[in-house]
Design brief:
198 residues; seven-stranded parallel β-sheet; sialyltransferase cstii, chain A; alpha/beta
């Protein structure tokens, strides 16, 4: 089992649910972190699992997903599970160490989503390389508008501390986004909500 508050390798790969296909990586050379509803991607050798939402909110807003997540976590008892607080129905769950992360810049107070909290945790654990795959925060439903900027901030903190940062090109971060004003009519005119000019 991965120790809950120590790193076991030099590289961490943080995976998002935007893709179901991840490149073939040397999995034994890295920790592999997943979160929330990514339990659908079963074939990967996860080393840590996270759901950084209050349990009461999940019971209210995500009841079906919550039951599946609990079953998934219990299916992998060797993979530490982190919640805002320990989850009573998961014996190997731990409270996410937000108090420890507060030793980082801005007192660890600037967080707008789970991914930036995972990057801050990876910085605190002392990884030498942080990799991101399958993360899309551009117009994602349920994500705060500041989630992408906050993730970029924490990746900058990591890079500033000499940690190598790799972001897969299909992740929607480190790009310029801007608004376009027009006189088009929603539903009638051909308007693309996101125009990709890359």
């Amino acid at each position: 089992m991965t120790p809950p508050f120590k790193r076991t390798r030099d590289i961490v790969t943080i995976c998002g649910g935007r893709t179901r296909r991840f490149p073939r990586l040397a999995w034994k050379a890295r920790e592999l972190w997943g979160l929330n509803g990514m339990f659908r991607i079963r074939r990967l050798p996860w080393t840590r699992w996270f759901n950084l939402h209050r349990l009461a909110h999940l019971r209210r807003d995500w009841r079906d997903g919550l039951e599946i997540e609990i079953a998934w976590a219990n299916y992998l008892p060797h993979v530490p599970f982190y919640g805002i607080t320990p989850w009573p129905r998961i014996k190997h769950s731990h409270a996410f160490p937000l108090a420890k992360i507060r030793s980082l810049p801005r007192g660890g107070q600037y967080h707008a989503g789970s991914y930036d909290m995972l990057v801050a945790f990876a910085v605190w654990l002392g990884f030498e390389r942080i990799e991101l795959y399958g993360i899309g925060l551009n117009l994602e439903s349920g994500e705060p508008i500041s989630a992408r900027a906050c993730l970029e901030y924490w990746l900058g903190v990591a890079a500033g501390r000499g940690i190598e940062v790799f972001v897969h090109p299909k992740c929607d971060i480190f790009a310029q986004y801007h608004y376009v004003k027009s006189r088009t009519v929603y539903g009638y005119d051909d308007v693309r909500l996101v125009e990709d000019r890359t």
